[in-house]
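Sample intake sheet
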Amino acid sequence: MATAGNRPQRSARQRAAIRLLAAGAGIVAGLSALSLVWPLQDYSAKEDGPPSAEALAEQPSQALNVLLIGSDADRQGAISNGAAPAGPANSDALLLVHVDPNGPVQVMNLPIEGAVRLPGDATPVPLGSLYRRGGAALVASASAELLGLDDGAPERYVVIPRTALRELVDGMGRLELAPDRAMAYTDQSQKLTIALQGGLQQLNGAQVEQYLRFRDPLNGEERRRGRQEQAIATLLRQMGQAAQLKRLPSLIAELRPQVDTNLTPEEVLSLMAVALQPGQSVQFQSLSLRPALNAKPSMRELEEQRLQPRWP
C-alpha cells in the first residue's frame, strides 16, 4: 500500500493484502500458536468478584497488538449501516492497541480519512472504507503496513458496532466525560439526534455514542479522534474501580455476542489485567495528515514519514 501520490513496488505484505481481499478472509486462521501466550488455567472470576485487576486473570507472557474497529453499523451483521452515507458498514474508528505486560498501553489512533492506495487500484480510498471491502483482515493488513508491524501483527481484532458501545457504557452505569461545548445535530435519514450540553457530566450509552459521532464543522475527524481518546482513557479509569472490576467478567460475557472478535472472554480478561493494573498509563499517538484541500474533505493524504522509534 502507498499513500496517495506515492506508489512503491508491491511488497510481500501488499500481495498478501490482495489475496486477503480476493478471498474475503477474516483473521481466524494461523493463530493457534498464540495459545502459548496465555497460561492454561481457569480464568473464571470468583463468585464475589475479583478484588483487583491482577486477580482478573494471569497476564499474557508477551506483548500483543489488538485492532479495534468501531463499526458505523448499529449491530453486528446488519445489512445496512444506518448511517451516512448509507450502505454496508464502514469503520468509524480505527485504533491499534499495544498491550505489554512490562510497559504502558499504547494506542495508535488511525485516521479513517487517510488516503491509501491498494495494489491494483487506480485511485486512493479512505482508510475507513477498507472494512467494507475486505473486512477485518484487509484493515489489519493495511494497518500493519502503514506502521511497519512484524508479520502476523496485529494478532487480535475486535469489531464493535454501535449497540455494543451503548451496552458497554450502560453495563458500567455511566461514563464521566466533559464535552468542550454544546453539541447539537439532527439527521432524519440516519434517525440521529445529538443533543449534549458542554461541561463535566455523567453520560449514558446513547449519549456517549452521540459524543463520539459528533463532527465539528472544522477539523471534524481530528476532533472526533480527540474525543475517542478521552472516552478510552475515562473508560479504563472507571473500569479499574473495585465495583467495576467485580462486574467486568460478566459484562464481557454479555457483550461477546454483540461483537466480532477472535479474542476469547478469557483472553480479554488477561489483557484487562494489564490495562487496568494500578499505576498503568495509556499513551496515544496518531499519524500526521497533509493539510486539507477543501473545507469538508472526505480524504486527506498521509504525511510521508517514518515512525521513530518504530511503533510501538
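Comment: Residues 2-31+49-301 form a domain with the Aminopeptidase fold (CATH 3.40.630.190). The longest helix spans residues 220-239.
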